[in-house]
Design a protein that fits this description.
The chain is α/β, with parallel strands linked by helices. It has 5 domains: 118 residues, no CATH class; 151 residues, von Willebrand factor, type A domain (Rossmann fold), CATH 3.40.50; 84 residues, Immunoglobulin-like; 190 residues, 3-Layer(aba) Sandwich (Rossmann fold); 214 residues, 3-Layer(aba) Sandwich (Rossmann fold). The protein contains 24 helices and 37 strands. The strands form 8 sheets. Strands 16-15-17-18-23-22-21 form a 7-stranded mixed sheet, with helices on both faces. A hairpin with a 5-residue loop joins strand 10 and strand 11. The chain is elongated.
């Protein structure tokens, strides 16, 4: 490769052909144009011949110049010119691309993909083997990558999405070493590490060292001011909340804002702050009433689409307003540190917004629950009305209750209570037994130091066991509860202070109260599916920070380990539940920091992402040469009189120059479109819902994979299209998932879709609602709005002998994630001008979910009929691909016997 400033040539020897241009000039000038026919006029012809000097006629100079320009362009294209070449490239050595695909790269993922694509396309053009490694752990085991055609790495890159957890570069270093230890692995290579710019600890050096042992390592970092932002903590304030935001790149000032969102996605509050130059953290505060603050489900950094820029909220955030009833008379007997009220207040202060006072004052604050110690009056009828209306009432026992229980108790009590460990006691003080898995206390660790010396006893009865949430080791109830109306009544059979037990002196006391307060607002008390006291994933964050359905293979987190758990491949960030309680596992935790990537990694050189990205001009020049060649043919036909006579001497030259100028403006885009037009690719319509779009992309990638494996069809990576703006003409099949709120098509989009169908394209509409579509009396609203502006031909249920059931496999039904749903095709395909092929296929089986696979080929979504149904869905997908590409050739096979008979071969 030689360079001339920003322009270089990968095959400079081809430029030697430029010396032949003068010879070509003389040859073209000496060749006369073809003779023209003229009307015979003897006298006028003789006059003209007398005046015209005798000299040979030559080709016009401007046409010769155009042809020389065409030859020069072809020579330059053969020299493989590169604009702003990558001077650090490793020549002909294999290329290893390492990409940080954790949450720290999610916000800038398009630029990361563009950087990697540019380098891999350069390796493909140079014929260099390539391999691709991502640093974030995969949820499933992934084989070590192998060096091969760069096209395979490009396909993986296009299908990949960032993870919702941090990279693990130490683990990535092990995969790099494993890849280079395989048989056939190169001894020398060039490594390009596209980094997120955030330090990963000692794993950074391990990764750089593993690659540097085999060749140079170039680290590509984000541009200044574009590094990742993380939301480290959300802190409750008396009048609102505060958000702690961190960044790794502390250069320059940077304004940021955060938004608090409710369960319906509406913004409840917004806070703004500015990073000072050199500061890596900033605090943004917002004022918000308690009732509004308790409605917050997420807080996000505006404009930062990553899982680390989101904090989801669990029960601990939703601090309910709790009323704590004072003892009658309002006093604490002059000894507040020994009163039940003091211990209840201390236990509730960190998990609720407390309102302390008499019943009138407490009810004025509209609390979600009431906590009543033994000395307070619990017989007021307004308490029973509060309970029936859906409130939570928590009572503690004491001497008064032991004498007179009253009606506001979950189960009848024996009079007098029970005393342990004294001279008149029956037994020694009792410890607390382990909590059952079907109670709100499931998973809490029981302190061995807690002892109960006295309690009130519940009368045994057939209904008592269902109301017991906690017991002592001898089996007697410690906490009982009962549903009253829409509310919950909970009784601790000991005092709120340490008079009857050491429970109020332990950390178990506030933990049990926190679980009970989760019922404020009508939550269910029990979840029978809990096993082993473990938190289970209910909703998960994807790499872009959106809450999606939970993966079925996520590991449960033991309750005693949840506070120390970190988000990872097996424990994704999101909302976890245990019984009635919910808790949030976020990517960043309080105290986490983002440090910049070290600049002294072993053997590494550094460059900035997006700077001097090389552009290969061969495709642009060849496309320009084709256009000039077409213009030359037209000009030659016109000069020879084979086209209608027009003043071509000026018009043809101007047209050629305009075409050249237009190509120069669109250059690389034309070359890319030409390249993709030659590759078979399926497309899916993007809905705007990240979860649906990712399933559509993975579904078409899965069916492309199966088509390559089972047939001669070799589709490329699927493409997502915006039906309102993108051209779909080059795709043989378009998968269109429909949602109930799908908007109607614009006039331009409807015209584009109609033209696509008339030109032989095929669209698969999938409403994804399974048997609900067949049982519903109303048509799918999204399907109706989408089709209302299209010229839809008459439809019919797919007949049993339809060619779609025999293009590759013989099929009698067409299942997806759901089985038994109806499939509709055109009723009269012979009149559709597409050689008997139906351009519309409409169903509700959610085919993409059944086809969807990850990078290792493992299914991503469950199928209701198991693996047999998934196999049948894959067979239908292969049939669909063959049907879109080959039409009704299978139908024509019915004529084979007659043809053979006429040929005399039968």
């Amino acid at each position: 490769m030689i360079s001339l400033g920003p322009l270089a040539f990968a095959a400079p020897w081809a430029l030697s052909a430029l010396i032949a241009l003068p010879l070509l000039w003389m040859l073209l000038r000496a060749t006369p144009p073809a003779p023209r026919s003229v009307v015979f006029a003897p006298i006028r012809l003789l006059q003209r011949l007398a005046r015209t000097p005798e000299s040979p006629q030559t080709t016009p100079w401007w046409l010769v110049a155009l042809r020389l320009f065409l030859a020069a362009i072809i020579i330059l294209a053969l020299a493989r010119p590169v604009w702003q070449p990558d001077t650090g490239a490793g020549g002909d050595e294999p290329l290893l691309v390492i990409i940080d695909d954790g949450w720290t790269s999610a916000a800038a993922w398009p630029s990361v993909q563009a950087e990697a694509r540019s380098r891999l396309e350069g390796a493909r053009a140079d014929g260099r083997p390539a391999a691709l490694i991502f640093t974030a752990p995969s949820p499933r085991p992934v084989d070590a990558p192998r060096f091969g055609d760069a096209r395979e790495a490009l396909s993986r890159l296009d299908a990949h999405q960032p993870r919702a957890w941090a990279p693990d570069r130490a683990e990535a270093a092990e995969r790099v070493s494993a890849a280079l230890e395989q048989s056939g692995a190169p001894a020398r290579l060039e490594t390009l590490w596209i980094s997120d710019g955030v330090s990963g600890g000692e794993g950074d050096r391990a990764l750089s060292r593993a690659a540097y042992q085999h060749g140079p390592v170039r680290v590509v970092t984000p541009q200044p001011g574009t590094g990742a932002l993380g939301l480290a903590a959300i802190e409750a304030e008396p009048d609102g909340f505060a958000a702690v935001i961190r960044r790794a790149d502390s250069r320059g000032e940077l304004p940021v804002s955060v938004t608090a969102l409710g369960a319906d996605g509406r913004a409840l509050a917004r806070a703004q702050a500015v990073f000072a130059a050199g500061a890596s953290a900033v605090r943004a505060e917002a004022r918000l009433p308690l009732d509004m603050r308790n409605r917050i489900t997420r807080v996000v950094i505006d404009g930062e689409a990553s899982a680390g820029a989101v904090q989801v909220m669990g029960d601990r955030w939703r601090r309910p307003r709790i009323g704590l009833l004072q003892a009658e008379g309002g006093g604490e007997d002059g000894q507040p540190l020994l009163s039940d009220l003091h211990y209840a207040r201390q236990a509730l202060a960190g998990i609720s917004e407390l309102v302390t006072g008499d019943l009138d004052r407490v009810l004025e604050a509209e609390p979600a629950g009431l906590v009543i110690v033994d000395a307070a009056n619990a017989q007021d009828p307004r308490i029973a009305a509060f309970l029936e209306a859906g409130g939570l009432v928590v009572r503690f026992a004491g001497p008064r209750m032991a004498v007179r229980g009253g009606d506001l108790i979950p189960a009848p009590l024996r009079e007098g209570g029970r005393l342990f460990g004294g001279a008149m006691a029956w037994d020694a003080p009792q410890p607390v037994a382990a909590f059952a898995d079907d109670t709100p206390f499931a998973g809490l660790s029981v302190s061995e130091e807690v002892r109960v010396t006295r309690q009130v006893l519940a009368e045994p009865g057939p209904a008592l066991d269902a109301r017991v949430w906690a017991r002592l080791e001898d089996g007697t109830p410690l906490v009982t509860a009962d549903r009253r109306g829409n509310g919950w009544l909970v009784l601790f059979h000991v005092t709120a202070g340490p008079d009857w037990s050491s429970l109020p002196l332990s950390g178990l006391y506030p933990a049990m109260l926190e679980r009970v307060l989760a019922l404020a607002g009508g939550a269910q008390a029990q979840t029978p599916s809990i096993e082993g006291g473990a938190w289970r994933l209910e909703r998960m964050l994807d790499g872009a920070g959106a809450l999606t359905d939970a993966r079925g293979d996520a590991d449960p987190i033991p309750a005693d380990a949840f506070t120390e758990a970190r988000a990872g491949a097996r424990t994704p960030p999101g909302i976890y539940t245990l019984g009635a309680a919910s808790a949030a596992l976020n990517v960043m935790r309080p105290g986490d920091e983002l440090a910049p990537l070290a600049r002294d990694l072993p053997g590494a050189s550094y460059e900035t992402r997006g700077e001097a990205r090389e552009r290969r001009l061969t495709g642009v020049l060849l496309a320009l040469a084709l256009i000039i060649l077409a213009a030359d043919v037209l000009i030659a036909l016109a000069l020879s009189g084979r086209l209608p006579r027009v003043p071509l001497r000026s018009a043809s030259t101007g047209a050629a120059m305009l075409l050249a100028a237009g190509l120069a403006m669109q250059g690389e885009a034309l070359a890319d479109d030409a390249e993709h037009a030659l590759e078979v690719r399926f497309a899916y319509v993007m809905t705007g819902d990240a979860r649906i779009d990712s399933i559509s992309r993975a579904g078409l990638a899965g069916i492309s994979r199966e088509s390559r494996r089972r047939s001669a069809v070799e589709p490329g990576a699927p493409a997502g299209v915006n039906i309102e703006t993108d051209e779909i003409l080059f795709f043989p099949l378009v998968y269109w998932p429909l949602t109930p709120d799908a908007p109607a098509l614009s006039e331009a989009a409807a015209a584009r879709v109609s033209a696509y169908l008339q030109s032989g394209g095929m669209i698969v509409f999938d409403t994804r609602d399974g048997r609900d579509a067949a049982s519903s009396r109303q048509p799918h609203p999204g399907l109706l709005r989408t089709l209302e502006r299209l010229n839809v031909p008459p439809l019919q249920r797919i007949p049993s002998d339809h060619v779609l059931g025999k293009t590759f496999y013989l099929l009698s039904d067409y299942p997806g994630r759901f089985a038994g749903s109806e499939v509709w095709v055109e009723a009269n395909p012979d009149g559709s001008a597409r050689d008997g092929v139906s351009g519309l296929i409409i169903g509700s089986a959610d085919w993409a979910s059944a086809w969807a696979v990850d990078e290792a080929g493992r299914p991503l979504a469950p199928v209701e009929g198991g693996e047999r149904q998934r196999e049948m869905a894959n067979r239908f997908g292969v049939n669909l691909a063959m049907y879109a590409l080959t039409g009704n050739y299978k139908e024509d096979q019915v004529h084979v016997p007659a043809i053979l008979q006429r040929l005399g071969r039968r």
